[in-house]
Amino acid sequence: MKTLYYYQTFVGLHKLFPHLTDIDVITVSSIHFDESKEGSKNIYLNDNLPDDPKFDDMWREVELVSAQGVTIMLMVGGAGGAYTNLFKDFKTYYPMLRSLLQSKSFIQGVDLDVEELVNLSDIQMLIRTLKQDFPDLLLSMAPIAESLVSDGPGMGGFSYKTLLNSREGSQIDWLNAQCYGSFSYETVKRIVKNGYDPAKIVMGMLSGQFTTATFPNALKEVQQILLKYPTFGGVFDWEYLDAPPDPQDPSQWCKRMKDAKESLWVQGGDTILE
Description:
By secondary structure, the chain is an alpha/beta fold. The chain is 33% helix and 23% strand.
């Protein structure tokens, strides 16, 4: 069961250092493509160029945790968009993404968060191109839970079932299911019932979904999933900045999740936390 943080507000990862064995993936967020005010086409990390000096400390820090065994991924898209512009001028924008990945060799994967209408064939083309350029690159996607519970189109306007059943979809290593408001055993059960492999499902929460008082409920849901699906892919939090149960120490989230897994016992069908 992997643990994954999305990392967009770059507050520093120093509190995570004592718990690096508890975290598996950090996904730096988020890449966009757009024209500058002067009309030049650029790749952006949030609102700035990825090589802006303001990101120097962040890049050094994620490279450091990568050296300690944490997988570093790069998210493309999200609520800020990326794909409309990318596919409108792929020959201009894609080489910028490729160059960024080449310049940051510690980035081991790309997370495709498609939240704008696109053609499925364009997503398949992007996957093919990434895997041609980086054969060992990890690939994940971030659909909303409902687009996995049913086979209807997700926010990107395409069916994830159709994508995963294609040659390109077989290259996707896992799905970061946005279970915002539905972080539960029942959600994962419905996704698996719809034909998805539990090993490829990483269930995600928003930090604000759980408080210090209610966070144990989240741990119990995860334990229930593991009892039913021992190969369950894992959990993620958006985002590291204020991850529960202690927003002042977001590193506790991954520690508590891994502790819940390790301390899982089965006695008469009940789950018990040591």
